[in-house]
Design goal:
With 88 residues, this protein is an all-alpha fold. The chain contains 3 helices and no strands.
C-alpha cells in the first residue's frame, strides 16, 4: 500500500479509469460478437445493422483511448469484409 499522498491519489484515479474502461470494453466486445453471430446467420439487413452498431462501439472505444485506432480499423475491416461476402 502506498504511503505517499500523490501515489494514493494516482491509485484512486487508476481504479476509476479501470472500471470505466472495463465497462466500455465489455460493451464493445459484446457488440462485435453479436455482429459476428448475426453475420453467421446470413440475414442481410440485420447483419448490416449489427455491423454498424459494432463499428460505432469500436470508434467510441478509440476516442476514449481504450483501443488503438489501428486495432479498431482492423476489426472494422474484418467485419465489413464478412458483410460484403454476405451481400454477394
Amino acid at each position: 500500500m502506498a504511503n505517499i499522498k500523490s501515489q494514493i491519489k494516482r491509485n484512486k484515479q487508476n481504479e476509476k479509469r479501470r472500471v470505466r474502461n472495463r465497462v466500455e470494453r465489455g460493451s464493445m466486445r459484446s457488440s462485435v460478437s453479436k455482429a459476428r453471430v448475426v453475420l453467421a446467420t446470413g440475414a442481410a439487413e440485420e447483419s448490416k445493422e449489427a455491423v454498424m452498431a459494432a463499428i460505432s462501439s469500436l470508434d467510441r472505444a478509440v476516442t476514449k483511448g481504450i483501443l488503438h485506432k489501428n486495432n479498431a480499423a482492423r476489426r472494422k475491416s474484418r467485419l465489413m469484409k464478412r458483410l460484403a461476402a454476405l451481400a454477394k
